[in-house]
């Protein structure tokens, strides 16, 4: 892809992400015009609009925007790491570990958002350490061992989650189920997710050349001078950290990290220097729009955003497969 086209596509995706963010500020049970939204952001105009736009919608919109980018970026990295087009951010059990931590906090009566997020992040880190430690064992670390270990750990976490749900008091069950299906209503502190997204994208782009080589095979990458072992470790920890941050903020939101990298690859090719920022921007726009729909379709009631991303993701993914039946990684 030539540089001019790449810049044009990235610019359009940036405009789309910004437009989806602004749309989310004006749409909901209370609707505001673009002028009212702008005035509220500046702290002018109606007090109700200022409270709704700045205090309620803006933090949530920024959080979902960041988490969509985190999931799409993590999915792109996982597909390079495992050289598997069906890999997504949750394949290594990170989401399951976060779910166990979050639900345990709910069962213990931790009501504060910060405490819940801390428990979810701790669970994600514990799952990450368990998968990495077990996948190494006494032998060499391989993609196959990592994938199999992640699947087993994810299954174990799923069993623990099912046990917790069966033991949970009825008054807590709805909140637990919403978190498991993806719930952005508790995402009130977007700054950490935004900072981690920016840092993660910068690190990934720094190694974009090596990622291009690794996508064509470990042997070729090593022959051309890439440190394959170090690069795989970097991809694993970076993708896991991005996933843990997203899951901690908005719960388990599926299909963003699976569908968006595929779309970006079909539209832009396999050059990671373009694909990674494109997937990040597209993921941000997709999750922000999905959360806007979740707040608006049956307002004032809210739907789990993870349900909408799945309903949108399944037909889109099937369409991508129909258009590119021989789609392969690398």
Question: How would you characterize this protein structure?
Answer:
The structure is a single chain. With 330 residues, the chain is mostly helical. The protein has a single domain (3-323), classed as ABC transporter involved in vitamin B12 uptake, BtuC, CATH 1.10.3470. Helices cover 76% and strands 0% of the residues. The chain contains 14 helices and no strands. It is globular, with a radius of gyration of 20 Å. The two termini are 15 Å apart. The mean pLDDT is 84.
Q: How is the topology of this model organized?
A:
Layout: H1 3-26, H2 34-41, H3 47-82, H4 94-107, H5 113-136, H6 143-167, H7 170-181, H8 191-206, H9 208-214, H10 218-223, H11 228-250, H12 256-268, H13 272-296, H14 305-323
Give a quick precis of the structure.
The chain has 14 helices and no strands. It has helices at residues 3-26, 34-41, 47-82, 94-107, 113-136, 143-167, 170-181, 191-206, 208-214, 218-223, 228-250, 256-268, 272-296, 305-323.
Q: Features of this protein?
A:
single chain; about 325 residues; mainly alpha; ABC transporter involved in vitamin B12 uptake, BtuC; about 75% helix
CATH class: Mainly Alpha
Summed up, the helix count is 14
**CATH fold call:** ABC transporter involved in vitamin B12 uptake, BtuC
Query: Helix fraction?
Result: over 70%
Rg (C-alpha, Å):
20 Å
Shape: globular
């Amino acid at each position: 892809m030539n540089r001019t086209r790449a810049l044009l596509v990235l610019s359009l995706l940036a405009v789309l992400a910004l437009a989806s963010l602004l749309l989310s500020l004006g749409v909901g049970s209370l609707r505001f015009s673009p002028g009212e939204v702008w005035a509220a952001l500046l702290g002018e105009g109606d007090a109700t609009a200022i409270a709704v736009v700045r205090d309620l919608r803006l933090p949530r919109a920024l959080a979902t925007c960041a988490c969509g980018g985190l999931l799409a970026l993590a999915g792109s990295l996982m597909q390079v790491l495992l050289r598997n087009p069906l890999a997504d951010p949750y394949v290594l059990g990170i989401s399951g570990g976060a779910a166990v931590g979050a639900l345990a906090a709910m069962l213990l009566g931790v009501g504060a958002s910060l405490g819940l997020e801390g428990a979810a992040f701790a669970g994600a880190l514990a799952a990450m350490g368990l998968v990495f430690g077990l996948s190494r064992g006494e032998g060499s670390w391989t993609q196959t061992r990592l994938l199999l270990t992640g699947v087993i750990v994810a299954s174990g976490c799923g069993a623990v989650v099912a046990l917790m749900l069966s033991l949970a008091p009825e008054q807590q069950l709805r909140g637990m189920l919403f978190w498991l299906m993806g719930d952005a209503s508790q995402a009130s502190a977007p700054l950490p997710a935004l900072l981690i997204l920016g840092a993660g994208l910068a690190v990934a782009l720094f190694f974009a050349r090596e990622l291009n080589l690794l996508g064509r095979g470990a042997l070729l990458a090593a022959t051309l001078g890439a440190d394959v072992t170090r690069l795989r470790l970097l991809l694993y920890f970076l993708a896991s950290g991005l996933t843990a941050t997203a899951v901690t903020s908005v719960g388990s939101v599926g299909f963003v990290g699976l569908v968006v990298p595929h779309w970006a690859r079909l539209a832009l090719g396999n050059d990671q220097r373009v694909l990674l920022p494109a997937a990040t921007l597209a993921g941000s726009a997709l999750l922000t729009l999905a959360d806007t729909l979740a707040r608006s379709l049956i307002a004032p009631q809210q739907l789990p955003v993870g349900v909408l991303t799945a309903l949108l993701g399944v037909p889109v993914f099937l369409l991508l497969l129909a258009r590119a039946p021989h789609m392969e990684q690398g």
